[in-house]
UniProtKB/TrEMBL annotation:
Residues 76-118 form the TGS domain. GO terms for cellular component: ribosome. The keyword Ribonucleoprotein applies. InterPro entries: Beta-grasp_dom_sf, TGS, Thr/Ala-tRNA-synth_IIc_edit. GO terms for molecular function: nucleotide binding. This is 39S ribosomal protein L39 mitochondrial. It holds the Pfam family TGS.
Amino acid sequence: MDPLLKRRGFATLLVEASKVANKLTNIEFAPDIISRSCRWKEAKYAATSLCVSPRADRIKVLYNGLPRPKMELSMAKGISTPFDCAKHLSQLLCDRSVIALVNGSPYDMHRPINDDDIHNDPTEANRAFWRSCQVVMAAAVESAFKDKFRMRLLSFHETSLQSGSFVADFRMELNSKSALEGIVNWSPTECELRALSQVGQIIASNAKPFEVLDTSPEETRNILQDAYRLACLRKEAGSTSSTLYRVGNYVQVHTKTPMIANSSLVGRFSIVSLRLLGRLAAEYVKPNDSPYQLVYRAQGVAMPTAFLAHFTTFDVLIRRAKQPNSTVADASNYVEPL
C-alpha cells in the first residue's frame, strides 16, 4: 500500500521525519491551512484597528496575585491582554501563567481585556490544558498526511482529565473507490504513532502563543472555509459567536474557552491511537466532493512542562489512554458503517 503520511523511514507514513530530529524544524502545512492563517491575521488586524480609531480607550486593571498583590495597571481597552499585564509584573509570570481569571471567569492570556479586574488562579488550568492539547493534536494530524490521504478535523470531543485521553475526529478524503478499499484495513503501527506524536511535540516545542479572535458566524465561515467542520460546529456550539485560535500557522475554532497561554507549556505529548470509525455519512458529503471519505478518531495524552515525571510513568498513562475513551460515543451522526 502507498504510504499515507509525508515522512518516510522512521515511520512509513510520515512527511520528513526519518529519525527523531536533533533540533526543531518548522512543520509544513498545506496551502489551504496557510490561507486560513492569512485570513485570520487579516480579521485580527481589522478587529484591533477598530479599538484604536479614533484613539485607544484606557482602562484600569487591578491585578490580585503574586508577586504584586493589588497592583493597578493602566491598559488599552480591547487591545491589551492578560499577557501584556504579566509583562509589567514579572518575566516568571509571563513564562508560567496558563490562564487568567477576569472578574472571576476563566480567560485566555492572549484575549483582549474589556473589564477592570484580573488575577491568576490554577483551578481552571487543567481543563484549558486538555483543550489546548486537542488543538495541537489536530495541527499534527492535519499536517502529517500526504495530500492524497488528506486529513481534516471534523469535531473535538469534550472529555475530562479523569477519562485519560483527549479526543478528536477527522475525515480522510479519497479520490476513488479503489483508494478507499486499499486503505480501510490500514491502522498505524507503534512506530507510525510515535512519528505522528513527534510532529505534535515539535508544534508544542516551537513555543507559539495561542492567539485569540472572537468572530461572528459569517467571519468564521470566511476564515475556515471548511464546510464539514462548520457543519459539525453548528452541532457543537451553543452560541452565535465562535472563538478562532491560532498557534503558529494553524487556525482552528473551538467551542470551549480559554486555552493555555503558550504551546511551550505542553511537555510530554503523545498521539496514542488513530482508529477507523466508518464512512462519512452521505448527508454530510458536499456536492461535487468525493463520496469516498472515511472518519478516524484520534486519542492523545500529554503532561504539562512543569510536571516532571519518569518516562515509565508517562508510559503507564499512554497504555491507559490507548483504550477507547468511554465518555465519547462511537455512534456520531456523521459516521455510517462501511
